[in-house]
Write a structure and sequence with these properties.
Helix content is 63%, strand content 5%. It is mainly α. The protein has one domain. Strand 2 and strand 3 form a beta hairpin. The protein is globular and about 55 Å long. It starts with 5 loop residues before the first helix and ends in a 5-residue tail after the last helix. Bound molecules: zinc ion (ZN).
Length: 276
């Protein structure tokens, strides 16, 4: 579920072509959890302080009690979805969830547990199971370490991984700035997307919410030009796969059958009213 931001990527692509043969695919195998955490922390720092990044990714400002309550609601929902991840599957680093205040229908995560969700995508949702489903999908990309492979395929990021390995903080900082757009739009494989749907759905069910959350959302947004889906082929298949996963598990089925409760619709409508 990533959107490519060409403005940030083009200069980098030109600059890094010559490094392609040397670095592609080499560094990413060396990405440890510690390196993921350092990379994510630097990305998050740049996103909040670099003026160009702030224009591209305006962090939500909770400057009224209503906005604060909304932000707390989303972050708490994300944390409770994360808490549903079995301990053995959780990385050693903590997660940080951030709202981006723009009318963009997208969410993304970067290595190291940094998850970002746009107010624009939340505005198109109908209930809490959909929001927790999308958050669970992003959390799963992190817990399943899908970005290691994605970084290996991106030559500019392979250079960054080498800098992490060399522990050169200035170089890391410089490369993160240059690669901000690439990091925010890491493209994972079709298989990884299905895997994130599957694990995200398990996490969602473990919170006691309707495990069809992401399938309901995808199904409704099909053909709507949703950025999330435009980079993800076959939304129909993905909806079908999640529906089958829920059908095959009796406790998931029970939660889905109880959707009048497990969607948590009225709470969601109330807590997100500030967006409308
Ligand atoms: Zn995804």
């Amino acid at each position: 579920m990533k959107t490519l931001r060409l403005g940030l990527l083009l200069p980098l692509a030109a600059a890094s072509v010559f490094l392609l043969t040397q670095c592609a695919g080499l560094g990413a195998f060396l990405v440890s959890e510690n390196d993921e955490a350092r990379l994510g922390a630097e990305f998050d720092r740049q996103l909040r302080t670099d003026p160009a990044a702030q224009k591209e990714y305006p962090v939500y400002v909770a400057n009224t009690p209503e906005r604060k309550a909304f932000q707390d609601y989303v972050v708490n929902l994300a944390q409770s979805t994360l808490a549903a991840v079995p301990a053995g599957q959780r990385p050693g680093y903590p997660f940080k969830f951030t709202l981006i205040d723009a009318d963009v229908q997208n969410a993304f995560a970067v290595p190291g547990g940094y998850v970002y969700i746009y107010t624009g995508i939340i505005r198109t949702m109908r209930d809490e199971s959909e929001l927790a489903g999308v958050l669970g999908h992003e959390i799963a990309h992190v817990t399943r370490h899908h970005y290691r492979e994605a970084m290996a395929r991106n030559t500019g990021l392979a250079v960054l991984v080498d800098a992490l390995d060399g522990n050169d903080q200035n170089k890391i900082r410089q490369l993160v700035v240059q690669n901000l757009g690439a990091l925010a739009s890491l493209r994972v494989s079709r298989e990884n997307e299905s895997d994130a749907d599957k694990y995200g759905t398990r996490y969602l069910a473990a919170t006691g919410r309707n495990p069809l959350g992401i399938a309901k959302y995808f199904g409704r947004m099909k053909g709507s030009g949703l950025e999330w889906l435009s980079t993800h082929p076959d939304p129909g298949n993905r909806v079908g796969e999640v529906q089958e996963q829920v059908r095959e598990n009796s406790s998931f089925r029970a939660l889905a059958a109880d959707s009048a409760v497990t969607n948590y619709r009225s709470r969601f409508q109330q807590m997100t009213a500030v967006l409308r």
